[in-house]
Amino acid sequence: MTEKIEKSGSQSERDGVQSYRGKAEYRNSDFGRFCDLSTFPFTRFTHSVTQSNQQGSSETKTTHFGFQTVPEEAKESLVKNVFSSVASSYDVMNDAMSLGVHRLWKDDYVSSLRPGRKGPLRCIDLAGGTGDIALRILDYARENYADRETSVDVVDINAEMLKEGYKRFKKTMYHNTPQVRFIESNAQALPEEQFPSNTYDLYTIAFGIRNCTSIPDVLKEAYRVLKPGGTFACLEFSKVNNPLLNMLYDQWSFSVIPIMGTVLAGDRDSYQYLVESIRKFPSQPEFAQMIADAGFATGGLHEGKGGAWRDLWGGIASVHTGVKV
Amino acid sequence: MAGVRTRLLQLTLPLVRSHGFTRHALAQSVLALPAPHPEPLSDTAVSALFGEGDEARRTLIEAWLDEGRKQMRHAPSRSIKDVLAARLRYNESVVDLLPEAFATLVTPEGIPFVDPRPALSHAAKVADEACNVVNDQSVGPSWYARRTSIAAIYTAAELHQLTSPKTAEDFLSSLLESSTKVESAVLLRVVVSFKHSVPRNMCSEYCVLYMLIHKTRPRPRLDKIEHS
Q1: Cβ contacts of residue A220 below 8 Å, gap of 6+?
Q2: One Pfam family, short name please (chain B) (predicted)?
Q3: Taking Cα atoms as reference points, which of A273, A276, A289, A113 lies closest to residue A205?
Q4: How many Å lie between the alpha carbon of A309 and the closest alpha carbon of chain B?
Q5: Which of A202, B1, B82, B97 has its CA 20 to 30 A from that of A164?
Q6: Does A233 touch chain B (CB under 8 A)?
Q7: DSSP string spanning B33-66?
């Protein structure tokens, strides 16, 4: 019995916004046998449809979708569509957009956590669809500490991304072992029967939290599922503090990356959203405060040694950590 | 956020005697919480809260030194001798751990040589705290001279304590008795460094020296001094 993509929650909970339900493609593949995509409620939309021009009533809660303002309940579906669109070329595009630097960031992120140093860990990686963080965690524990007991639950709201991760792991020694599981679920509402409280030693989320509709809900769930003493670690794009570097970064982000999306992936708008969403994410101190407000113990409200976060490459990315005490 | 971290550091201080200035001591701190954890903090959690590698140990050592300065306020009297002696007594329980602790402070990662700044900062902070406790009223160059001399005295006494803990307080007393000479030397150095504001002639400098050595003597009138 190989790993299967587990779905959490009821069908209605996974439906998202009712108005976006439609036919879904059924993929005749090994993946499809384990996860019937014909039951998925969402389909791929053109971006002209998703660009909502609705002026909501005063009661309608809105949030940002990149630089657009959309109804809060619509963001989840919109983000799902983006990642369904980019899933098959996600890793290639990451390499192109960051010139391979994202690999250094992820290596630094995982190595700073030192999984396996003091025994096996039970880890959960949210928005970890393609499995690169999970694979790094397992490899680090194995290569440095001969740890073959550390396990990672890879959780993602997007089945396409999970499919890519599943395929990646089929090429590794962790396939068909209890060290990895793939679970489709919403980071804001992890079902308690599948994700009991006080379960995990390490909660990771890399380049995913900015896509969530409600960051406080994600943090609340992270706090719930972690054991006392468990660690929350988030790698995310952040605010660049150096004005010159910030100018160059903006030029690269808004001039080059959408063009790359067009040429390499045939999807400019998805990559436009990705760079816009980075600009809408809270700054490092704001996000650190949100982590503390969720109940985590953190370092001081500053960067670096003893601080609540650590900047990478001048703040292009940051690693925020917190401990459930 | 920082409150929980600070609380854990406070809970770690009593564990220093048994566990040393180690990451293990920091991990054990959660066992002393009012609602104790079932197991110590993981290595990842210690790194997240206090820093990676020896950085966590430096955080603990700095917290221990901060607590030592607070203990100075509970000295039996408001004399410099008693305040500094109280600080030395704070060291007694962990005196065998202090050489390695100080070595850890002055050898930060990534720097291939000894960094004296933490040691100088420690001495300066102790001196400043001692002067605050005794309500020192020095101003101007005397403010610096007083603190410099106390820092020097305390540093010497603490170093003595590392090798001969039982005679540390007596050594401190003997140093304090000769402290006025140290203070004067420092004050002289400060004043001489401002000599550009004084007429540049040997007699003027002699008058300054004369004033320092014989403080009770009235200040000589510079216009009555014959130039050599």
Answers
A1: A294
A2: COQ9
A3: A113
A4: 9
A5: A202
A6: yes
A7: SSS--SSPPPHHHHHHHH-STHHHHHHHHHHHHH
The rounded distance, in Å, linking the Cα atoms of A127 and A118 is 26
Tokens at B158, concatenated: 């603490």
pLDDT in tens, A116-171: 998 999 999 999 988 999 999 999 999 999 999 999 999 999 898 899 899 999 99
Q: Which two structure tokens, joined as six digits, stand for A286?
A: 């704001």
Mean pLDDT of A36-43: 34
What is the average pLDDT across B117-137? 95
B-chain CB neighbours of A309 within 8 Å are: none
Residue with tokens 């962790």: A174
Helix (H, G, I), strand (E, B) or coil at A312: strand
**A130 in a labelled binding site:** yes
The helix (run of H) or strand (run of E) holding residue A320 is strand A317-323
- Kindly report the nearest CA distance between residue A26 and chain B, in angstroms: 42
Distance CA A34, CA A32 (A): 5
Instruction: Judge contact between B60 and B12, C-beta under 8 A.
Output: yes
What is the token pair recorded at A230? 């468990």
Residue A192 confidence (pLDDT): 95
CA distance linking residue A292 with residue A12, whole number of Å: 33
* pLDDT tens, position by position, A263-294: 777 777 777 878 888 888 999 999 999 999 99
The ipTM value here is 0.72
pLDDT at B207 over 80: no
pLDDT in tens, A62-87: 887 777 788 877 877 777 777 766 66
Token pair for A59: 């009661």
Residue A153 parent element (H or E): strand A151-156
For residue A145, what are the contacts with CB-CB under 8 A and spacing of at least 6?
A: A116, A117
Q: Do B45 and A229 touch (CB under 8 A)?
A: yes
The minimum CA-CA distance between B53 and chain A, rounded to whole Å, is 10
Q: Closest to A229 (Cβ–Cβ): which among B37, B50, B55?
A: B37
B96 interfacial to chain A (CB closer than 8 Å): no
Contacts of A283 (CB under 8 A, 6+ apart): A238, A239
pLDDT averaged over every residue in chain A: 80
In angstroms, the CA A53 to CA A49 distance is 10
Structure confidence by residue, pLDDT tens digits, B167-193: 999 999 999 988 766 666 666 776 676
- Can you read off the two tokens belonging to residue A121? 């860990």
Strand partners, A202: A123, A231
Q: A187: annotated binding-site residue? A: yes
The residue with tokens 């917290």 is B63
pTM of the model: 0.76
Q: Does A300 touch chain B (CB under 8 A)?
A: yes
Neighbours of A257 (CB within 10 A): 20
Q: Do A325 and B51 touch (CB under 8 A)?
A: no
How many Å apart are CA B72 and CA B87, to the nearest integer? 6
- Partners of residue A125 on adjacent β-strands: A154, A204
